[in-house]
Amino acid sequence: MKRFALIGGIYSNWRALETALSDIARRQVDATFCLGDLGAFGPYPDRVFPVLQQAGVLCLQGNYDHSLACGLADCQCGYTDPRDNHFADLSYDYTFRHTSPAHKAWLGTLPMSRRLDVNGTRLLLCHGSPRKINEFLWESTSPDGFLAYLLDEAGVDVLCVTHTGIKWHRDLGGGRHVVNVGALGRPENDGTPRVWYALLTIGATSGVEFIPIEYDHEALAADMHAERLPAEFIETILSGWWTTCLEVLPQKERARGRF
Amino acid sequence: MTSAAAVALGHLDNLWIQVSGTQCNIECRHCFNNSGPRATTFGHMTLEAVNGAIAAASARGVRDIYFTGGEPFLNVELLEMIACALAVAPTTVLTNGMLISDRIADRLAGLANDARYSLEVRVSLDGYTEEMNDAIRGRGVFRVALAGAVRLARRNLLPLITIVRTWDDADELATLAGFARVLKEAGCDRPRIKVLPPLPLGRELTRIAGLQRDECVTTAMLDGFDRDLLMCSNSRLVTDRGVWVCPLLVEQPDARLGTTLDDAASSYELRHQACVTCWRYGTICGNVSGHIEGPDLAGAPEAR
Question: With bands split at pLDDT 50, 70 and 90, how would you rate the model's confidence at B201?
Fold first, then answer.
């Protein structure tokens, strides 16, 4: 049996990342994987790199990381709404300016996916979907048949993604699972400041446990305030409700939120 | 003349179903498929035919199901069709909103709440004032359609307001702000908006006669282009008269690919002006979170 910690969507939240990695260290996992998007929203983007590297976390490239590494003009989240674009631009421009050239170059060296074989169980880890780095796999818009197709095409039994910022798990039967590991960088639009990661067990019976992380979110908000990041981003960290990047939320996920 | 590029169907992500044919209770000035009260180019689909198409698409791992028309709510079996679709995939209904009574809104909210997948209701408006909207969609439409959208919003079934861009680029922000303000004042306190480009088809083609150019999507235009943004690469439309390559080209005889989904997987040459619009704007028919331009993972660095 193997047990992996899966984290994603760090969004420069170095405080939640440190707390989560301390929690993971107590759980004796076989490896910790980060599924990408190290930057966005939060303060001091360079701070997450040494934390991840010193903990030996195996990282993948997310769309944000790809944009930063390639010097692209935006984060590739595909917003069309002017308000969402305004805040996405603020977030991306800040992160781009405050990520060192060495860290940007390191992001460019990260793989976009990772395959594992655990005693015959085949796993694929990626950021958005096996097809695209920025394809959103939301719980309410990922039907069973479509997920089975993705598993078949990739030739795997277990698929792990992030990108949406909201966790979920689908057991398709026959040892086939799809897991969205959620995000450590910001709360999941549920009105609480906690963030989440996933513990994946692969063995005779495979399964997923989502772990809530309570961290010093008020200190992060103070960091963000000091960096003059938008009040809307700080409100999300404090309240747990998403205030921006709302356009891409499907009906069900949007209706659960406040904005 | 340069030849048109051909695009093959990859995976059937999107199943479009023209449930009410081209029958509509209004007659919009820019309608791309000439729908209207007397339009009979396409007819209503039966519940049996719709369920059959849903089952066939579900077996292929479809990701999204869309109901369109005409006006879908003119098909009296629509709610049963939505229930059937929602059982297997997220489902979207494209409506003018005029037939969304309290009873219909209650039923839709019930279906949405009971389903594992999202139900999106896209309500078309083309102006944030009666004058602006009704000049395009017909007299009295604004007030009734807005009331329909508000009924949905009050049930937390947040409608996606779909607007065809009929203003100048310079007016973009002010116009969208106008929509948001009016929607909030009316009771849609969390407005969701999707803007579509005008499509050079149907009545819009007549309206812009003389202004259009003779263009097609060439192979060179697809070089380095993300084909996932083109409907023909991931979608098919079923009607009462066969399967079409996409919902936009439903009046083009060459865009009919077969009788069933099974025989409609062939590639299609992008020879129409509307194909250029699709190429230029990308993902124009899907919901906002559908296909987004970005790097494919095929061939990307992979770790083991």
Answer: confident
Helix (H) or strand (E) holding A116: strand A113-118
Query: What is the percentage of chain A residues whose pLDDT exceeds 90?
Result: 95
Inter-chain CB proximity B158 and A126 less than 8 Å: no
**How many alpha carbons lie under 13 Å from residue B125 in its C-beta half-sphere?**
33
Tell me, what's the pLDDT at A5? 98
Q: What is the CATH number of domain A2-114+179-256?
A: 3.60.21.10
Per the structure block, which two tokens stand in for B256?
């009919």
Q: Which whole-number Å values give the CA distances from B294 to A67, A90, A94, A131, in the listed order?
A: 10, 20, 22, 10
As beta bridge partners, residue A196 has A212
The token pair at B112 is 């949405």
Residue B183 phi/psi, 5° resolution? -65, -45
Q: Where are the domains of chain A?
A: 2-114+179-256
Question: Which one, of A31, A29, A35, A48, lies nearest residue A223 by Cα?
Answer: A48
pLDDT of res. B289: 54
In a mutational test of the A interface, the residue from B116, B118, B173 whose CB has the highest number of chain A CBs within 10 Å is B118
pLDDT at B298 over 80: no
**B59:A145 CB<8 A:** yes
For chain A, residues with pLDDT lower than 70 are none
Minimal Cα–Cα distance from B133 to chain A, Å? 21
The Cα of B154 is separated from the nearest Cα of chain A by a number of Å equal to 11
A-facing residues of B in 198-257 (CB < 8 A) are 228
Q: Which domains does chain B possess?
A: 6-281 (3.20.20.70)
